[in-house]
Amino acid sequence: MYVRQFALEEVGMSSSDARIGITPFQSDGSLRGFVLSGRWPDTTKEWAHLLAFTVRIASMPGLLSTSTVFGVREELPEDPPPGTIGLVLAEGPVLGDEAIPPGHFAGGSPPAVMVLHPPHDTRPSLPECAGAASGCVLLPGLPHLGLDHRAAWVEADAEGTVTSMVSRVGVDPITDPDTAVLAMLLAA
User: Fold this and answer.
1) Residues sharing a CB contact under 8 Å with residue 137, sequence separation 6 or more, in sequence order
2) Where are the alpha helices (DSSP H) in the chain?
3) CB 72 within 8 Å of CB 140
4) N- to C-terminal Cα distance for the chain?
5) Best label site of 7, 127, 152, 183, fewest CB within 10 Å?
6) Measuring CA to CA, which residue among 140, 96, 132, 95 is closest to residue 114?
7) 84 neighbors 183 (Cβ within 8 angstroms)
8) Could you tell me the residue range of the domain that residue 69 belongs to?
9) Domains identified in the chain, total number
């Protein structure tokens, strides 16, 4: 198990000492999710940095067997460590017999959903980044109320170096394969 906490100073926001903690957990050798502690990310930029950490974990050989969707939950595990605020749980693979169906989250939309792609499912942005993993986080909005969808995309190599990071506000989910799949899972 790996433990990492990042401070706001690391994401360019030094106005507070509040920390966001993230601890991955696995079962049977596979990545099953992350425990979040401290506080929730406040901005798209902080969500992008949280995604960068999760993609670094996904780049570790063997932890993620296929592209997997993760849902953010504001519920706590049994007997949580002090400061725990929620979970990011593996919901299921994107493709295959066990793929999660469209509308999976329709009963209760999570504050964020993400997809992580292991190295064998990622086409790296640069040839020298062979073995990179990638991921996307979608922060669903309510466009008809003026709250735009937001998203971030990250790629990281096996050494943990972030090779690409992009974040956007006002995202039309249909314009990107990852956000389109995540939006489909959120739709009723």
Assistant:
1) 47, 48, 50, 51, 112, 113, 114, 151, 152
2) 44-58, 177-186
3) no
4) 35
5) 127
6) 140
7) no
8) 4-186
9) 1
As a residue count, the chain comes to: 188
Nearest CA-CA partner of 46 in 75, 79, 7 = 7
For the chain, 188 residues long, give each residue's pLDDT as a single digit of tens.
344 444 333 433 334 567 899 999 988 888 999 999 999 999 999 999 999 999 999 998 888 999 999 999 988 888 888 899 999 999 999 998 899 988 888 777 888 999 999 998 888 888 888 889 999 999 987 555 556 788 999 999 888 889 999 988 888 888 889 999 998 888 85
Kindly tell me the burial class for residue 105, based on how many C-beta atoms sit within 10 Å of its own C-beta (0-12, 13-18, 19 or more). buried
Whether residue 15 contacts residue 9, with contact meaning beta carbons closer than 8 Å, is answered with: no
Q: How far apart are CA 180 and CA 149, in angstroms?
A: 12
